[in-house]
Structure formats: structure tokens, C-alpha cells
Amino acid sequence: MNRQRxxxxxxxxxxxxxxxxxxxxxxxxxxxxxxxxxxxxxxxxAAHMRDTExxxxxxxxxxxxxxxxxAFPNFDQDEYWKSxxxxxxxxxxxxxxxxxxxxxxxxxxxxxxxxxAWKNHGVHSAYGKVTLDWLAMHCYHHTLxxxxxxxxxxxxxxxxxxxx
Length: 164
Description:
Strand order of the largest sheet: 1-2-3
Shape: elongated
Low-confidence stretches: none
Radius of gyration: 17 Å
């Protein structure tokens, strides 16, 4: 693995740890609070992160390591929740643990990927041609996006209590 890929995988690993540490600070009440009817609660964001890590990112990396030019369907969180059911009573710690397990496996697979695997590509129904480099970067950005989303949700909740 070249230095650039190693740095990317290191950032991916670290962002997963930071995300997990951030979730560990959130109380159950805070996790379920919604700052507006159209925004996800922190609990919903956490479930989305776990589901996306398992059902999209890890799945696609495994396929790229196993198959030549696999086809990837789009992962639709709303459809997934309709079929599998989102459970607001699910433990936030359990969701966090499931996310971390999937992230560790994803990082381990990327660290062990051959040069040939890094050159392989799949075809995503919405994004077109995707590689391990693209998936790792997309996963990393997805993590950062939702860390920020949770931070904004916590800030809005805090401002509501201060302005009362």
C-alpha cells in the first residue's frame, strides 16, 4: 500500500474512533431529541451510520476484493428502514458497537488489499465507476459529515435550553 492510501486508511480508522467517542458522550435523552421535525435525531444518525457502514461501505469493499467489476445498487436508507424497521428503542451503545465492528473490519480489509484490488473497480448505479480509493474517501467524508451533523444537533439543543 502506498503512503497516500495508508494515510487515507489511517484517517478512516481515526474518524471512526472519533465518531464512536463522540457518541459515547451522548445521553439517551439527548440521542432521541429532534431539533426539528425534519431533522434526524442523533440516534437516527447513529443507526444510519451503522447501516451504511455495514450495508454499503463494507459490502462494497468486500465485493471489490472478491469480484472483478461488480455492480453496486444504491443504498437507500429510507427503503432499508421501511423493510427492516428503524427501532428508536435500540440501544445507542449497541449501535455504536456495531458501527465500530464494521469500521474495524473495513479498515482491516483495506490494509490487507492487494495492488490488484486497489486497481479493481465496480459500477455504482448512481456514482458510476468506483474504486477502493473512492470508497475509502467517500466513507471518510460520510463520517465527517455526520460528526458535524451531530455537533449541530447538540448545539441547537443546548441553545434551546439557554434561551428558555
